[in-house]
Design goal:
By secondary structure, the protein is α/β, with parallel strands linked by helices. It is elongated, with a radius of gyration of 39 Å. The relative contact order is 0.07.
Length: 630
């Protein structure tokens, strides 16, 4: 007899020899022992995991001529030595008919099968029909088989093996017992490969067998086929083929995972040049971009599973060395970053399937991994806007993120002097604390100084971009609004012009400015405190000198305006509040605006808020945009 491939030579002949399908073999053995035999079975699952093999073993057990309980057959397992078992194993049994449903899929073939099923078996106890790739049968052919499958003769048993059970009509599935096979675990495949290597007298490294088991991807047949090929290409040492990990990688065209570990380290460090040089070397060595992207997806998946469950998690079906490597990569990123990286790599892999310039798209996809590390999560952005001081406190001290990140230069862009930077607690505290996070975000970003803060740790460099400048609150000359409300009216200046309801304009100004400063709107408090206030029965008007309309709308935002209206209502003042650009007059105010001495750049650098921002973020002001209306 000629050479027989490993997948056929070591094909299981007993239920106990089948690896990874205990839930199926246990049920079938119990059914045989209790004589509860169904007339129809559907075996579904991944390729090469034992569907047809178990169908043959079940046929052997049903037609075995050796009595159960005898010394030759103590259990319902087939004896494997009688004529029926031998013929079924060799594939020439008269009463066990295997049909390739991929080629015999029409209604005429099924009609012939249906007619032949009416006759009793020639010699054995049961006539067994094994339909391989049963999902290929046409709908009309299934309908022709339906009545026979529903009420078959007592001597007929149908077994259908398929990788796509959803393509079998529900009317057929409801008349059969359906067994869903599992993908074979990595450890089961590895144990089987070690046993076969010992039987075949092959000197194999543990890493080499682990690579073969991983390449099987849950299919025992695939792993054995690759092993057969590896043995044929292996060098002979002392009369025995020797399998090494390097030789198997070269045979399969695979790249060592150490390479992908270096790639992800370059991504975590933001080293674009090193990343491109590594990819250039791999492509020049003959590795296709599509294969590299596929292996990158698998490596990132393993790193994500290691992040979720740890190094010893059941989610990782790889060797111990690969587990450690995936865990080291997982430490460089957060769970969200690994998920985003995997999503980008999957999209790149999809693009390579229909793109002509595959190398270009692979390089572009890997560069996206580096660029994605600089993104600020939308959740963090929204929490920073809505949460105020507490939500952004960690940013003021330097953001802390797990794993590595990208070092970015520390830069700052500050507005001109009369337009002080926005306060850290934008909507924190006070009556407007519950304001929604999405209020006037566009306007706030336009008037904000974008400050890149950099904090160095022992392991890596972390950086974030704050959506608003984070600066310390400036001390206010006013007390809280509650304190002023109780006693300020009696202490109001007698020279002030009296207004309706007995209010004094200076008192109204003091209360509102103090309330704004207390609630965190110090920019609006300074701006309004420097203006000229007038009060009549119709409205409260504030004229701010040297300030454009755009800056007014940005500084006195919706949150500040709501707080002002609440204070006016509580004081009994007119509810209408108007702010306009006024003449260059500056009454005695709580905070004078910065008067530009020399250039706008010098005026901005001299502003206390800008100085405070530089201290917090260790930043430098590279450019200043003057938004004041000349």
């Amino acid at each position: 007899m000629g050479y027989q491939v490993l997948a056929r030579k070591y094909r299981p002949q007993r239920f106990a020899d089948v690896a990874g399908q205990d839930h199926v073999t246990r049920t079938l053995l119990n059914a045989l022992e209790q004589n509860r035999i169904a007339h129809g079975y559907i075996f579904s699952g991944h390729r090469g995991i034992g569907k047809t093999t178990i169908a043959r073993i079940l046929a052997m057990a049903l037609n075995c001529r050796t009595q159960v309980g005898s010394p030759e057959r103590p259990t319902p397992e087939p004896c494997g030595t009688c004529d029926a078992c031998t013929e079924i194993r060799q594939g020439n049994a008269v009463d066990v008919i295997e049909i390739d449903a991929a080629t015999n899929r029409g209604i005429d073939e099924i009609r012939e099968l249906r007619d032949a099923a009416r006759y009793a078996p020639s010699r054995d106890r049961y006539k067994v029909y094994i339909l391989d790739e049963a999902h290929q049968i046409t709908e009309a052919a299934f309908n022709a088989l339906l009545k026979t499958l529903e009420e078959p003769p007592a001597h007929v048993i149908f077994m259908m093996a398929t990788t796509e059970p959803e393509n079998i009509p529900q009317t057929i599935r409801s008349r059969c017992q359906h067994f869903s096979f599992h993908a074979v675990k990595f450890d089961d495949i590895l144990a089987q490969l070690k046993m076969i290597a010992a039987e075949e007298k092959v000197a194999a490294e543990d890493d080499a067998l682990a690579l073969l088991a991983e390449a099987g991807d849950g299919s025992m047949r695939d792993a054995l086929s690759i092993m057969d090929q590896a043995i044929a290409s292996a060098p002979v040492e002392n009369g025995r083929p020797a399998l090494s990990a390097e030789q198997i990688r070269e045979l399969m065209g695979a790249v060592p995972n150490t390479v992908f570990e270096r790639l992800m380290e370059a991504v975590a460090a933001g080293q674009s040049a090193e990343l491109m040089e590594e990819i250039n070397g791999l492509v020049n060595a003959g590795h296709s971009p599509l294969s590299l992207a596929r292996q990158m997806v698998r490596y990132l998946r393993n790193a994500l599973m290691a992040k979720l469950g740890g190094e010893q998690t059941e989610l990782l079906q790889i060797s111990a060395d690969e587990r450690a490597r995936a865990t080291r990569t997982a430490l460089l990123f957060t769970e969200e970053e690994l998920t985003r990286n995997l999503q980008i790599t999957l999209r790149t892999f999809d693009d390579l399937n229909y793109r002509q310039e595959q190398r270009l798209h692979l390089e572009l996809g890997l560069l996206k991994l580096i660029h994605a590390q600089r993104l600020l999560p939308i959740e963090e952005l929204l929490s920073g806007v809505a949460g105020g001081t507490g939500a952004r406190a960690s940013t003021a001290q330097g953001p802390q993120r797990s794993g590595g990140s990208i070092a970015k230069p520390a830069t700052a862009t500050a507005p001109a002097a009369p337009a002080p930077a926005r306060e850290k607690s934008l909507w924190a505290g006070g009556p407007n604390a519950s304001r929604s996070a999405g209020m006037k975000v566009e306007a706030a970003v336009e008037n904000s100084a974008v400050i890149h803060s950099t904090t160095r740790t022992n392991e890596s460099v972390h950086s974030e971009v704050a959506p608003f400048p984070v600066v310390a609150s400036q001390p206010s000359g006013y007390g809280s609004s509650a304190t002023l409300t109780e006693g300020a009216l009696a202490k109001a200046p007698q020279s002030a012009t009296d207004t309706p309801n007995g209010l004094v304009v200076e008192h109204v100004r003091e209360v509102i400015v103090a309330a704004l400063a207390t609630a965190g709107h110090s920019s609006a408090a300074q701006l309004l405190g420097s203006g000229t206030w007038t009060l009549d029965s119709a409205a409260v008007r504030v004229a701010v000198p040297g300030m454009g309309k755009k800056m007014l709308s940005l500084t006195v935002n919706a949150g500040a305006e709501k707080l002002i209206r609440l204070e006016l209502q509580r004081l009994g003042a007119p509810a209408r509040f108007l702010v306009s650009a006024g003449a260059e007059t500056a009454p005695a105010a709580v905070a004078q605006p910065v008067v530009g001495v020399g250039s706008v750049q010098e005026a901005a650098l001299a502003h206390p808020l800008v100085k405070r921002a530089q201290e917090i973020f260790n930043a430098e002001v590279r450019s200043v945009v003057d938004l004041r209306q000349k």
